[in-house]
Amino acid sequence: MSHEVDKILYSASVIKRHEKNPILTAEDVPFDATLIFNAGVTKYQGKYVMVFRNDYNYTKQGPFGFEGTNLGLAFSDDGINWEVQKKPCFSLEDEEIIRAYDPRLTVIDGKCYMCFAVDTKHGLRGGIAVTEDFEKFDVLHMTAPDNRNMALFPEKINGKYMRFERPFPVYSRGGKDRFDMWISESPDLKYWGNSKLLLAVENVPFANDKIGPAAPPIKTEKGWLTSFHAVDIDSSRGKNGWEDTWKKRYTSGIMLLDLEDPSKIIGMSKKPLIAPEVQYEKDGFRNDVIFPGGMILEDSGEVKIYYGAADTVECLATADVNDLIKLCTEAK
Ligand code: BMA
């Protein structure tokens, strides 16, 4: 049975929303754009790089209600002000594929890897591509359906690449959304296995529906600092956004994983890290959605957390790395 989730959830007090939020919107994009959100962000070759999701032209038709989805590219010197490139940067030419979305970026050994979700005619998949210039991407791997939401670790651990992922077991989980966060390893980023359950939805007090990965983890002295997304559903919610009905709320959680064996959780905050509280999070295409896709640890100890808000705009929040670790280790 799923538990009750509080009607009102708050962000952790250590979280500071950036005064320039939202830091990227459709108005900043020089091609057809409507919803700009769920971006992957990293630092690469001295610049901040963002690959963002763009759902464009709301038609209310078809399975998604938009004419299409593409991935745009932006660069920045400060991680706050962005220069959006003229054209989308990534597409997959394949009859089977409907769209790619929700990118997450991880730099490993000087190359930038992008995980992304893929809707296909025969299920939801996740892909991993690699690039050195954000013009040419080579796809290294695609999951079997239904499994998406992947995020890579920035280095090998005990000789293996590691990733988070979120399979969608249905029969075995009571025929409902009861989806959990998993971790897998690979010798070469192409073949993945030794999958383990990392965090189950029933162990997250602010989720009663499903959870999954958010941004790729960042390395700290105390462990891998790891965000995740958590969803609660409330049947009394009705029209919450542009669609006729939207009963879910997305928050972000935070946990700390063992440096040597990241399938071990050292601690997890029992409360959300970021919950939808301000106008641009509470009011958009889908109200009350927070979805981090990028976390950057600065030399100063500041952690930049990039997140999609209300499936409509891209935002930035910051927190001190030690405060985030404390949320996990002193969890109440
Ligand atoms: C999930 C994904 C995310 C999105 C979320 C809320 O299923 O599609 O991209 O942010 O729903 O709509």
UniProtKB/TrEMBL annotation:
MF term (GO), any: hydrolase activity
InterPro entries per UniProt: Glyco_hydro_beta-prop_sf, Mannoside_phosphorylase
Keyword Nucleotide-binding belongs to the record: no
Keyword Ligase: no
Record's keyword terms, sorted: Glycosyltransferase, Hydrolase, Transferase
Family membership: Belongs to the glycosyl hydrolase 130 family.
Protein name from the UniProt record: Glycoside hydrolase family 130 protein
Source species: Clostridium yunnanense
